[in-house]
């Protein structure tokens, strides 16, 4: 099975966070209030208009009462199940500055 694309793996993260929020019976507005953010913050990351960093993801888990490490392990298992060989690189080129051809 080929690896998941970077975007597919990120979409999986988004859907898991949305499901956890709904399973806890928390609205986007209520979660945003707990985070001290506008409702649009939650909406945008749930529909993919905004990406979350690690600390933001940690804070979402914290305010929802979800163990962050357990969440990451669950995400890792889902990526393995759906992607087989992990995650493909997000770009064709390496990160950082491009080196000039010599």
Description:
The protein has a single domain (6-83), classed as 434 Repressor (Amino-terminal Domain), CATH 1.10.260. It is 61% helix and 0% strand. It has helices at residues 6-23, 28-35, 39-47, 54-64, 68-83. The protein is globular, with a radius of gyration of 16 Å. The model is unreliable at 92-99 (pLDDT under 50).
Q: What's the β-strand tally?
A: 0
What distance separates the N and C termini? Answer: 38 Å
In the CATH hierarchy, what is the class?
Answer: Mainly Alpha
Please provide the ordered H/E string of secondary-structure elements.
HHHHH
Dominant shape: globular
Low-confidence stretches: 92-99
How many domains? The number is 1
CATH topology: 434 Repressor (Amino-terminal Domain)
Tell me the helix content: 55-70%
Summarize model confidence as the mean pLDDT. 86
SS class: mainly alpha
Cα radius of gyration in angstroms: 16 Å
The proportion of residues in beta strands is under 5%
Give me the number of helical elements.
5
Per CATH, the architecture is: Orthogonal Bundle
Main beta sheet strand tally, sense and closure: none
CATH superfamily: lambda repressor-like DNA-binding domains
Descriptors:
102 residues; 434 Repressor (Amino-terminal Domain); mainly alpha; 0% strand
Blueprint of the fold:
Elements: H1 6-23, H2 28-35, H3 39-47, H4 54-64, H5 68-83
Summarize the structure.
Helix 1 (6-23) packs across helix 5 (68-83). The protein has helices at residues 6-23, 28-35, 39-47, 54-64, 68-83.
